[in-house]
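Inverse folding, one chain.
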């Protein structure tokens, strides 16, 4: 599994990274690539693989640009129709808008959820991607 996080706030970067790493260890999930980015351009430049083993955790507001994460998701979807995309954001009001972008996100996780709920939602996303690795579209 490859995991990419796009989050411009350093404290949130650290929080999400630590939670994801703990989930991977606790569930004995192996990963090949794990990167955290603060800048969308660098993030997009580093995407080289395709497939359902790719997980992207995206913030929606990047550097005061609302919907920037949605634009990034659209770019990811152009490159990879099978990748898993989940939004991790404080802007839950953009959930309905995310459908207009046609990016097929598997979850929309609010950073302000109570910590146990936030962790469980991230874990559900990671387990879903882990369990679906290597499955064909028809099997899925």
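Residues assigned per position:
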């Amino acid at each position: 599994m490859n995991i990419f996080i796009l989050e411009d706030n350093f404290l949130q970067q650290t929080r999400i990274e630590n939670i994801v790493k703990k989930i991977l260890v606790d569930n004995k999930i192996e990963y090949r690539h794990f990167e955290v980015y603060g800048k969308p351009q660098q993030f997009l430049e580093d995407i080289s693989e395709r497939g359902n083993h790719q997980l992207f955790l995206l913030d929606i507001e990047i550097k005061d640009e609302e919907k920037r994460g949605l634009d990034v998701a659209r770019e990811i979807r152009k490159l990879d129709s099978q990748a898993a995309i989940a939004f991790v954001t404080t802007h839950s009001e953009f959930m309905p808008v995310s459908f207009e972008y046609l990016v097929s996100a598997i979850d929309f996780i609010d950073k302000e959820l109570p910590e146990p709920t936030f962790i469980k939602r991230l874990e559900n996303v990671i387990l879903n991607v882990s369990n679906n690795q290597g499955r064909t579209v028809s099997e899925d």
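The beta strands are 2-6, 33-37, 54-58, 84-89, 107-110. Residues 23 and 120 are 9 Å apart (CA to CA).
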